[in-house]
Every structure is written in C-alpha cells, then in structure tokens.
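Step 1: inspect the first sequence and its tokens.
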Amino acid sequence: MHKAILSDKTVRLTAFALLALAAAGLMLPAWVVNNMMFGLARGAAVLGLLVLWRTGLMSFGHGLYFGLGAYAVALSEQWLGLSDFALRIIIAMLAAVIAGFALGFILRRYRDIFFAMLSLAFSMVLYGILVKTEALGSTDGFSVSQTTFLGWAPEGKQVLFTAIIAVCLTLAVLVQMYLRSTLGRLTTAIRDNEIRVEYLGYSVSQAIHIKYVISAALAGAAGGMMAMALGQVDPDSMVYWTVSGELVFITIMAGPGSVLAPFIGAIIFEFLRTYAFEIAPHAWQLIVGGTLLLIIFFLPGGIWSLLERIPLIRRLRHD
C-alpha cells in the first residue's frame, strides 16, 4: 500500500508543494501565514467538491458541512472543554459524516440543478437554526480558544499552520488513493453514462452516496480547521450561502485536474480577496467576480491547467 502511495506522481508533487509551503511559513509574516491557513482549510472543502464535480454533480450547500465542522469544534470546547487538535478534527469530521450520511439518502436521488439547490436548502435550514437558537450562540456565535497539541499550547500559530498542512496532505493523499481505486474510477464513468455503470453491476446511487459522505467529511474537517485558525465561529462566516458560493467559486477557479489544485486555488482566492478589499473596499466583489469571468473565458480548465504548462510541474508529474 505504502509503495503505491509513494510511487504516485501526484502524491509526490502534492507532498513536495505542501512541505515547501510549510518551510516557507517559517519565514513569512503572520498575516500571510494566517491567509494561507484560511486557504488550506477552504481547500480541503473544495477537495470534496472536486470529487462530486468529477461525478458530474455540484453542491451549492457545502457550507452546511463546513459549518457543522466549525460548530462541532466550538461546541466540543463549550460543553466538553476539548481543545486538542486531533480530537477537534475527528469531532468535526464525525459531525459532518453523520449529517452527510443521513442527507445522502435524499440527495442521491437527484441530479443537476435539483441536487445543487436541494443541498443549498439544507444549508440554509442549519443557518436558520443557528441564528434563532441562543444556546448555539445565535448571530454572535462562539469564540474558539487556542488549540493544544497533546496538552501543549505553543505560542504563535506556526505549529497550528504546520498541523493544518499535515492534515491537508493526508486528506489529499487519501482522496488520490480513492480516485485511483475501482470505486473512485466510477467517478467519471457515472458522469459520462449512469446506465452503463448500472449494467456493469454497480449501484450508482450507492456510489454517489459514498462520494457525498466523503465530500461531507472533507468539508467538516475544513470547517474545523477554519474554526481553529480563525478563533471564532458564527453563522454568517461559516454556514451562510455565501460560504457555499465561495467554495464553488474556488472549485471552478482551481479546476478539477489534480488533488493539489483545490489548495492552490483556495490560497490564491484568499490573497485575491485580501488585495481586492484593500484596493477597492466598496467594490472588491467586482474584482473577484471579474477574475472568475476571465478564468471561465480563457482558462476553462482552471488555474491548474495553466500550472500544468510549467515545465517543472510537468516533469514532476510525469517523471
């Protein structure tokens, strides 16, 4: 198994890129490290959307699982006093998996715009519950205390940054291994012709259900990491429809070409939004929207299709 992982060129390239990012974080200013943590967290959620997109499905409501993961971290601290990084990630993923597994029985029956809008509807139900429930923080949400590592509370965010990179690398490797498995290879087959897949003896509904739960788990982990990086959870920044919209935006911007693409696209998105807001505080959405239009018109394969033209990346992928 480990030989298969180490021999995979995409895994090697992803590991090289994320380890280089971890090393760069030692020399970069705190605000840049913060932005990269936010980008990596969102990238994990986009990785889940990539799995669905390759199946021909797009969810406009993954803010639901992103928010569940974030709130699981905050509530586990409020109710149980948990602050350990590993436990927080596990709880965030578990909350998202349970919800994704239950809702998957409904969503696996739908396709196209019905799948997208139904997922959005579920996320807005959660948003409404959070806003109206005082015990869940209402519109103010909760603050999240410093994350600890086996009881150790390091100063600064460098350790948290490194831990988030380790989680993102693990998730990327697992998704890459899944996509190379028999069930993973059904992803594009289902998108191309569901009936033919059924004739081959596979259940399309079950396959979509599994992919949906995987994408929910990734979004839950992403929400948990975002809560720890940001130190705050509230309905507007974790569950509102704009959160889901941003994840779809990044998915299109990054492109479906590689498991590394979501992380690159999400980090670029964070810096694009930061600089757009600094340049035009009242019209930053115009800059972000214009960028998406340019990518759709001139780079339909996303940023990854541009990066693939760089000789070094091409060589690392194909050597």
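Step 2: inspect the second sequence and its tokens, then contrast the two.
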Amino acid sequence: MSQTSLSAQDVKVLRWTPQAALFTAISGLVIAALAFGPLIFRPEIIDRLTTLFIYILLASMWNALAGYGGLVSIGQQAFLGLGAYALIRLSNAGVNVYVAVVLAAFVVGLLSIPIGQFMLKLRGGEFAIGMWVLSELLHLLVTIDPTVQGETGTSLIAMNSFSPAVRRADNYWMALAFMVVLLCVLFFLLRGRIGASLQAVRDDETAAASIGVNVFRTKHVLFFLSAIGCAAGGALWLAASITFQPRAFFSPQWTAFMLFMTIVGGLGTFEGPIIGAIIFFIAETYFGATGVAYLIGLGVLAIGFALGFPRGIWGAVEARFSLRLIPIGYHLRFPRRKVGAKALSQQSE
C-alpha cells in the first residue's frame, strides 16, 4: 500500500470557508431586513418574532455555559428572574424603561461576579444543583420585597406611557439588538484565546491548568456573559408581558426550555441553539395551547434526542458533512492531487 507524503506547505489552515462566508453574508442581510420588521409585519408577527429572539438569546447563553464551558446549570432562571426584578426596581426609581432594560442586564452581570466566586468552585453535579438552590434562594429574597408584594407580583407601570404600537416595536428592536450583540460577543470570544481556553477547560480542567490556562478566570468570563444574556432575556420578557410574578420568572421551566433547545439543536455548537430555538418556537406556536400534552411531548422529544442523537441536529449534520457555517474553529485543507480524487478537509478547534 503506497503512502503519499505531505509537506507543511501543502496544507492550508483556513478559518473562512466559502460556505461560511456565504452564510455570514446571508445572515447579515437577514438581520438588516429584520431591523425593518415593525414597519413591515403585522402586530402578531412582531410579537412572535420578539419571542423567538428571546428564545435564541436564552438558548445560546445556556449553550455557551454548558456546551463550551462544561458548566451544566439547572438554575439559569436565577439570572432571568433577577433581570426582570432589576427592571422593576430601576423603572420604579424613574429610569427610562428601555434604558432600564439595558442597565438591568448589566447590573445582574455585575452581581454574577461575586456569585461566581463561590459557585464556580463547584464541579459537575454540585454546580448544577448549586445553581438551582441559588435560584430558589433568590426567588424567596425577591418575594420579601414589599414592592413585589410576594407571589402576587407587580406590573411594569412605566410601560403604560407607551402606546401599544410603540411598545411592540421598541420591544422588537430591543430583543433583536440584544440577540445580535450578545451572539457577536460570544462569536468573537470563542474565536479568541478565551475560546481555546474554554474548550481546554471543558475537556479536562487539570490538563488545561497544567498548560497555563487560568481555569477559574476563564469560567468566570463565560458565567458573566451568560448572566447578562439571561438577565436581558428576563427583562425583555417582562417588557413584553408587563406583569412580574416571581414564581413565573424564577420557574425551573425556563432552564428546561433552554436545555431542550440546546439538546435538540446541538450542544456545543454555535448554530445548534439557534436551530433548537426555532424548533421550540414552532412547536410552541402550534401545540402550546394543548397544555400538559405539549410539555409531555417536549420531554419525550428531548429524551429521544439525548438517546438517539446526542449531538443534536446540527451536531449530526457537522459529523456527516463536515459543514461549519459559523467560522469559530480552523479547517485543514489538503491539496486534491496529493490525497486522491476527493479533497479532504479536517476540522480542528
């Protein structure tokens, strides 16, 4: 059996493939078109798209934490609830409600720094359960605030100063902006040194530390970003629904939804949570009114994917076709003439 030798000059290291460049260009055009949504779409479509943007944001933030950092949290509703609560408090203090949405996300992000000091010392199941316990604790603390009136909750009264059409359009633009900005931040984060460190930490913390990776600081960066994203999702959800009830915003169901979208779409891939969020959005649109049957169906589907397609939809596509639409990792391209009739391409991250 003959072997073909390859020199380093024969192999090209690529980050952008033609498919990735085309997909990025199309995505930019779609986002630009979506920016005109409130001027084009009917009110009910604007509301539904706002919901979809929030779902994509939440799923991507949970995937960033679990898929890239190996930090599986079942308590991300803590930051979602805190984001909504911070919006209530800031709005009551006289801050413009849409400025308050942005501030609420960053206030919760800053709060996640001291929280991370002790939560990120936990590993595996301890971290997952610890986050859930933290969420329940924060839920109870919020309910003793007289402003919230216990589980009865309160309303985002400042939204009454906006007409329904203006409110709907502003919510849409805010959700779109948060989704795009935070996905871009995550994209550039994963392409840089922190991205490589994150994957090293996810695969083996001890080995990562032995080669000089600051494991704790690397986790902290991801924890901070995920907290901002989930808090923004909570604040945006409150801006759209107006009513704040602690039990609803601190419900574990939010994390279950994030987990479903990520598992179905593809854990540890950039594209997967977006696909999962779209599938979840469609399922909710057509079957959400069926109540318990809808939730049972989601559970069965998630279990089916976890057992039959553990890499999710996009993970399976990547494995089958070596297709990567978001250029986060690197591609090694070998010359066609040296390796046979078919060009070979390998991917490395």
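Step 3: confirm your contrast with the notes below.
The two ends are 31 Å apart (CA to CA). The chain is about 70% helix and 5% strand.
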